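User: Bile acid:sodium symporter, Paraburkholderia acidicola:
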Amino acid sequence: MARPKLLPDNFTLCLIGTVIFASLVPVHGQAGVAFNWLTNVAIGLLFFLHGAKLSREAIVAGATHWRLHLVVLLSTFALFPLLGLALKPLLSPLVTPALYAGVLFLCTLPSTVQSSIAFTSIAKGNVPAAVCSASASSLLGIFITPALVGVIVTNQSAGGASPWHTVWNIVLQLLVPFIAGQLLRPLIGNWIERNRGVLKFVDQGSILLVVYGAFSEAVNEGLWHHIPLSALGGLVVVNAVLLALALALTMFVSKRLGFNRADQITIVFCGSKKSLAAGVPMAKVIFASHAVGAVVLPLMLFHQIQLMVCAALAQRWGARDTSGEGRAAAQKSGPAAVARR
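Assistant: Predicted structure for Bile acid:sodium symporter:
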């Protein structure tokens, strides 16, 4: 039996199930403390495996394309925050203040790695450059995101620690395991390549653990009493507007700057998306524990919208590129070859 096209992917269904389960059976007390330690270990393992997986050769291959990387980084860490602030008077009435704080947090996050590369490949873009841009965005986000949050997210849900303390916590929890994975890549890199299912399991499993813990804490603090259904509907509109503007502006700017088609595709997919895998652990470090649920809710929704929209774009652009190659081959082969068709 074919899977219905409108049915979300399995991971999204697991996310929805996790939120429902946390709403009905939230963890608390000593069990919550133990669960928090388990979550920290899972996050450290996740970034360790990502470090071991990342190919240095692919990064070097795309690292020289500095103009493309600069556009992607400016889109990720400048365009998005500016859009979030500029749209606040128009869009914030559609949601609660806590949810819009989550939207602003979403705007400060780095780009995705796996899906940016995958969509670039499907659409026939510059894959080596996508690997480099997405990876650089993920690493720089460890330092840039906390600083941006301190500037644009003026909300009581933010933790009271200084930005430098927050950066240090993120470095310990995310960057140190990542570097350890990179250092051990010569020993375990081949095993990681042969067992990609392990990375996927840890990747998705760690996110589900953080989401369950975050929403448990938020439910214990009365999350669903403070977020009406109308605000959830408004959040869909806010995320859709934000993604549409990001896609349109990255398309426009990449064309105006004279990038070729492959580079334009890379800029659009790397510069318009936000990382759930990096955002959820960062929210756990940056924000007070009771506020993390409301903060990550916009990110979870944006993640699903960006996957559906970018998947459709990638397939459309990839098919168009294939058709173009076919026409070029037909013209090159001459009238006789066309007649034989």
